[in-house]
Amino acid sequence: MTRVLVVDDEPQIVRALVINLKARKYEVDAAADGASALQLAAARHPDVIVLDLGLPDMDGVDVIRGLRGWTRVPILVLSARHSSDEKVEALDAGADDYVTKPFGMDELLARLRAAVRRAEPVAGAGDDDVTVDTGDFTVDLAAKKVHREGRDVRLTPTEWHLLEVLVRNTGRLVSQKQLLQEVWGPSYGTETNYLRVYMAQLRRKLEADPSHPKHFITEPGMGYRFER
User: Fold this and answer.
1) Are 40 and 16 in contact (CB under 8 A)?
2) OmpR/PhoB-type domain spans which residues (predicted)?
């Protein structure tokens, strides 16, 4: 069973999420503040976290940073903050998706399922036994790992999925819409700020000179291309 950690200080939202998740056979833990969330995440190892940013003891972005210090678990932000800058800050800290309050339960559950899918290993694909070496870093598609300068590079599930789509299309332009729909799901197609944030993350982690990338190329207004 998939275990979900719900982090929110509004009891009615927690209750609604717990009821709906348990009705769909999820196991659910709940925390009302950031400190409890970090403790529960370490103790219970959830498969996905639904996190409010407005917590009583710390900002949710700091919780994301704390989690990203040791885990790649998918993090779905649930927040009343609507501004693009705040969304980008949460994504930049390591969140995988962002849902604004008030929200539709069906949409939230669909995004939660998509986040869990992105974190699952792909089994049985014949072309998974592929290692791509750029000279600066190596991508192991079978093991879902990236090595740079002799060390593993820690990627979130969404960062990995974006990298994987680009690497499997080496040398070819992948449109913004295609990337959004492949990585985040068919209901996405216009959230180009997601791509901007995650491409910046990949460049920071993998490019020798992130401000002058040679592997993750932007085609302005069209999409992105991966080059060895």
Assistant:
1) no
2) 129-228
